What does this fold into?
Amino acid sequence: MLPSGNSSFDSPLVHILRHNESRKEETVNFARRVFLIAGIYGLIVLLPMYLLEEKTGRDFPPPITHPEYYYGFIGVAVAWQIVFLILSRDPLRYRPMMIPAILEKAVFGIPAVVLFLQHRISTLTLAAGLVDLLLGVLFILAYLNTADLAE
It folds into this structure.
Protein backbone atom coordinates (compact mmCIF):
# COMPACT_ATOMS: atom_id res chain seq x y z
CA MET A 1 0.00 0.00 0.00
CA LEU A 2 1.30 3.42 -0.89
CA PRO A 3 1.50 6.09 1.79
CA SER A 4 -1.24 8.65 1.59
CA GLY A 5 -0.26 12.25 1.54
CA ASN A 6 -1.04 15.49 -0.09
CA SER A 7 -1.84 14.42 -3.62
CA SER A 8 -0.72 17.78 -5.05
CA PHE A 9 2.86 16.90 -4.08
CA ASP A 10 2.75 13.29 -5.29
CA SER A 11 4.86 12.41 -8.26
CA PRO A 12 3.25 11.06 -11.44
CA LEU A 13 4.70 7.65 -10.55
CA VAL A 14 2.78 7.63 -7.25
CA HIS A 15 -0.44 8.48 -9.12
CA ILE A 16 0.17 5.61 -11.56
CA LEU A 17 0.92 3.16 -8.75
CA ARG A 18 -2.21 4.20 -6.84
CA HIS A 19 -4.29 3.79 -9.99
CA ASN A 20 -2.80 0.32 -10.56
CA GLU A 21 -3.57 -0.71 -6.97
CA SER A 22 -7.14 0.50 -7.40
CA ARG A 23 -7.50 -1.40 -10.69
CA LYS A 24 -6.14 -4.57 -9.11
CA GLU A 25 -8.57 -4.26 -6.20
CA GLU A 26 -11.53 -3.71 -8.56
CA THR A 27 -10.52 -6.67 -10.72
CA VAL A 28 -10.11 -9.01 -7.76
CA ASN A 29 -13.39 -7.80 -6.24
CA PHE A 30 -15.20 -8.49 -9.52
CA ALA A 31 -13.85 -12.06 -9.58
CA ARG A 32 -14.73 -12.55 -5.90
CA ARG A 33 -18.30 -11.38 -6.43
CA VAL A 34 -18.83 -13.44 -9.59
CA PHE A 35 -17.70 -16.69 -7.98
CA LEU A 36 -19.48 -15.98 -4.69
CA ILE A 37 -22.77 -15.28 -6.46
CA ALA A 38 -22.35 -18.35 -8.67
CA GLY A 39 -21.65 -20.61 -5.67
CA ILE A 40 -24.54 -19.32 -3.58
CA TYR A 41 -26.95 -19.40 -6.53
CA GLY A 42 -25.91 -22.95 -7.37
CA LEU A 43 -26.41 -24.19 -3.83
CA ILE A 44 -29.84 -22.54 -3.63
CA VAL A 45 -30.88 -24.22 -6.88
CA LEU A 46 -29.26 -27.62 -6.36
CA LEU A 47 -29.69 -28.55 -2.70
CA PRO A 48 -33.51 -28.71 -2.81
CA MET A 49 -33.20 -31.17 -5.69
CA TYR A 50 -32.14 -33.81 -3.15
CA LEU A 51 -35.75 -33.79 -1.96
CA LEU A 52 -37.41 -33.56 -5.37
CA GLU A 53 -36.58 -36.82 -7.13
CA GLU A 54 -40.19 -37.98 -7.41
CA LYS A 55 -41.50 -34.53 -8.38
CA THR A 56 -38.79 -34.17 -11.03
CA GLY A 57 -39.84 -37.50 -12.52
CA ARG A 58 -43.47 -36.34 -12.66
CA ASP A 59 -42.77 -32.84 -13.98
CA PHE A 60 -40.16 -33.92 -16.53
CA PRO A 61 -41.16 -37.42 -17.66
CA PRO A 62 -40.20 -40.16 -17.80
CA PRO A 63 -39.86 -40.97 -14.11
CA ILE A 64 -36.29 -41.34 -12.86
CA THR A 65 -35.29 -44.98 -13.28
CA HIS A 66 -31.64 -44.63 -12.28
CA PRO A 67 -31.53 -42.56 -9.09
CA GLU A 68 -27.76 -43.01 -8.87
CA TYR A 69 -27.40 -40.75 -11.95
CA TYR A 70 -29.82 -38.19 -10.54
CA TYR A 71 -28.11 -37.98 -7.14
CA GLY A 72 -24.67 -38.32 -8.70
CA PHE A 73 -25.35 -35.30 -10.91
CA ILE A 74 -26.54 -33.24 -7.95
CA GLY A 75 -23.56 -34.28 -5.84
CA VAL A 76 -21.00 -33.36 -8.50
CA ALA A 77 -22.75 -30.08 -9.19
CA VAL A 78 -22.84 -29.22 -5.46
CA ALA A 79 -19.12 -30.00 -5.22
CA TRP A 80 -18.49 -27.46 -8.00
CA GLN A 81 -20.45 -24.83 -6.10
CA ILE A 82 -18.01 -25.32 -3.22
CA VAL A 83 -15.14 -24.82 -5.69
CA PHE A 84 -16.75 -21.53 -6.75
CA LEU A 85 -16.99 -20.43 -3.11
CA ILE A 86 -13.32 -21.30 -2.58
CA LEU A 87 -12.41 -19.35 -5.73
CA SER A 88 -14.31 -16.36 -4.35
CA ARG A 89 -12.06 -16.26 -1.30
CA ASP A 90 -8.81 -15.81 -3.25
CA PRO A 91 -9.27 -15.59 -7.03
CA LEU A 92 -5.60 -14.94 -7.76
CA ARG A 93 -4.35 -17.90 -5.77
CA TYR A 94 -6.89 -20.30 -7.27
CA ARG A 95 -6.94 -18.75 -10.75
CA PRO A 96 -5.97 -22.00 -12.54
CA MET A 97 -9.25 -23.51 -11.26
CA MET A 98 -11.15 -20.88 -13.26
CA ILE A 99 -10.47 -22.90 -16.43
CA PRO A 100 -12.38 -26.02 -15.34
CA ALA A 101 -15.00 -23.73 -13.74
CA ILE A 102 -15.61 -22.18 -17.18
CA LEU A 103 -15.83 -25.67 -18.66
CA GLU A 104 -18.32 -26.71 -15.95
CA LYS A 105 -20.64 -23.94 -17.11
CA ALA A 106 -20.18 -24.64 -20.82
CA VAL A 107 -20.83 -28.40 -20.66
CA PHE A 108 -24.41 -27.78 -19.59
CA GLY A 109 -25.16 -24.41 -21.17
CA ILE A 110 -24.12 -25.26 -24.73
CA PRO A 111 -25.95 -28.62 -24.89
CA ALA A 112 -29.04 -26.97 -23.37
CA VAL A 113 -29.19 -24.51 -26.28
CA VAL A 114 -28.64 -27.27 -28.85
CA LEU A 115 -31.25 -29.54 -27.24
CA PHE A 116 -33.77 -26.71 -27.08
CA LEU A 117 -33.26 -25.94 -30.76
CA GLN A 118 -33.97 -29.63 -31.43
CA HIS A 119 -37.18 -29.35 -29.33
CA ARG A 120 -35.84 -31.91 -26.85
CA ILE A 121 -35.92 -29.85 -23.61
CA SER A 122 -38.31 -27.40 -22.02
CA THR A 123 -37.98 -23.63 -21.89
CA LEU A 124 -37.37 -23.94 -18.14
CA THR A 125 -34.37 -26.19 -18.73
CA LEU A 126 -33.12 -23.83 -21.43
CA ALA A 127 -33.33 -20.96 -18.92
CA ALA A 128 -31.11 -22.89 -16.51
CA GLY A 129 -28.65 -23.50 -19.32
CA LEU A 130 -28.63 -19.82 -20.25
CA VAL A 131 -27.89 -18.86 -16.64
CA ASP A 132 -24.92 -21.22 -16.76
CA LEU A 133 -23.74 -19.66 -20.03
CA LEU A 134 -24.01 -16.17 -18.51
CA LEU A 135 -22.01 -17.27 -15.48
CA GLY A 136 -19.50 -18.92 -17.81
CA VAL A 137 -19.01 -15.62 -19.66
CA LEU A 138 -18.49 -13.84 -16.33
CA PHE A 139 -15.97 -16.54 -15.35
CA ILE A 140 -14.11 -15.93 -18.64
CA LEU A 141 -14.03 -12.19 -17.90
CA ALA A 142 -12.71 -12.86 -14.40
CA TYR A 143 -10.05 -15.18 -15.82
CA LEU A 144 -8.92 -12.75 -18.52
CA ASN A 145 -8.95 -9.71 -16.25
CA THR A 146 -6.81 -11.42 -13.60
CA ALA A 147 -4.18 -12.61 -16.10
CA ASP A 148 -1.68 -9.82 -15.43
CA LEU A 149 -2.32 -9.93 -11.67
CA ALA A 150 -1.62 -13.61 -11.07
CA GLU A 151 1.73 -14.44 -9.57
